[in-house]
C-alpha cells in the first residue's frame, strides 16, 4: 500500500514538473527532512528580502487540509487547516519560468491589497530553497512563504497539476478549485481575485 502511494506521488511530481516550461526534471520527490529550508544563511536572506513571518493559527476549523509545512527561510511551521480567508495560495517553484514572470505582480498585489486578501506562497517540489529565496527577493516578494519539497499536499484538496497554480480560500472557509496561473500584471491578479472571491477591491 505504501509503495503504491509513493509511486502515485512520484507520478504526480512528474506530471506537475513537466507541465511548466523550464520546470524541474527530478522525478522522485525528496523527503522533507532531506531538504533544509531553515539555515542561518536562509534566515539572513529572508530577512534581507523583507519576507514576512509565516502566519500563526487563526482558526481551529478552516477550509484547508490538515497538513503542516515548514516556513521557507525559517520560522514557525504552518498548519494549513488553521488559516482563514480571504486568502490567495500560490503554488510555485524557482525553476518554473511562468512563476518567475508572475511573482512581481503577486508582490505588487500583496503590497497594495494584502491587508484585505492574504497571500501565501507555497514553494513546491523544490530542492533548492536558496534559489527560491533569491527569486523571491529579486521579485520584491514580502508575503509569507512555506515549503513543500516532498509534495505532501498532492492527493489533498490542494493537488496541483502544473505551476504556477492558485487556490482561493473565502472568508467562510470555502476553497476554490485549482486555477492556472501565469499572470503578467497587477490588474490581472486583481481581476482573478475579484472573480474567485466574489469581492471588489
Automatic annotation (TrEMBL):
A Pfam family for this UniProt protein?
AhpC-TSA
The Thioredoxin domain is annotated at: 58-198
Query: Would the keyword Lyase turn up in this protein's UniProt record?
Result: no
What Gene3D superfamilies does the record point to?
Glutaredoxin
Q: Which domain of life is it from?
A: Bacteria
Q: Which UniProt keywords apply?
A: Cytochrome c-type biogenesis, Disulfide bond, Redox-active center, Signal, Signal-anchor, Transmembrane
PROSITE patterns according to UniProt: PROKAR_LIPOPROTEIN, THIOREDOXIN_2
Q: Which InterPro entries match?
A: AhpC/TSA (IPR000866), Thioredoxin-like_sf (IPR036249), Thioredoxin_domain (IPR013766), Thioredoxin_ResA/DsbE_sf (IPR050553)
- Compartments, record wording: Cell envelope
The answer to whether the entry has keyword Transport is no
* Span of the signal peptide: 1-21
First-listed, main subcellular location of the protein, grouped into a coarse class: other
Q: What CDD domains does this protein map onto?
A: TlpA_like_family (cd02966)
PANTHER family recorded: THIOL:DISULFIDE INTERCHANGE PROTEIN DSBE
Q: What is this protein called?
A: Thioredoxin domain-containing protein
